[in-house]
């Protein structure tokens, strides 16, 4: 029998989470507040997405950890990326957008961005003092 799994993350803000998912090419739905699983079961989420291969996932706010949890039916996970790699990519883009947002608020600008062969992203920032 299949069931929904919740996977803890360190994703605490909705704006960089949505920007990360958008940048990775996933269609985010904030109106559809559920994820469908095995035998038509549903579970409530704050953000839902349909990944390729009919894989259904969502993110749900957890008050105990003050972060979003990934919600999916792992038995129905058919997406090419393993769930751990999916979370890793989302977390990386979330961190990227969080850094960009916070540094821009503090007056920094991106001078250079290098996407490295190992998948990491190197940012060079500057701040002009007046």
Question: What would the keywords be for this entry?
Answer:
alpha+beta, 5-stranded antiparallel beta sheet, two-stranded antiparallel ribbon, elongated
In short:
The protein contains two helices and nine strands; from the N terminus they run βαββββββαββ.
What does this structure look like?
The protein has one domain. Strands 1-7-6-5-2 form a five-stranded antiparallel beta sheet. The model has no long low-confidence stretch (mean pLDDT 90). It is built from two helices and nine strands. Strand 3 and strand 4 form a beta hairpin. The chain has 130 residues and is α+β, with helices and mostly antiparallel strands. The longest helix has 23 residues. The radius of gyration is 17 Å and the shape is elongated.
Order of helices and strands: EHEEEEEEHEE
Secondary structure category: alpha+beta
Give the biggest beta sheet: 5 strands, antiparallel
Morphology: elongated
Number of strand elements: 9
Cα gyration radius (Å): 17 Å
Mean pLDDT: 90
Beta fraction of the residues? 25-35%
Structurally, how many domains make up the residues?
1
Give the neighbour order of strands across the main sheet. 1-7-6-5-2
Residues in helix, %: 25-40%
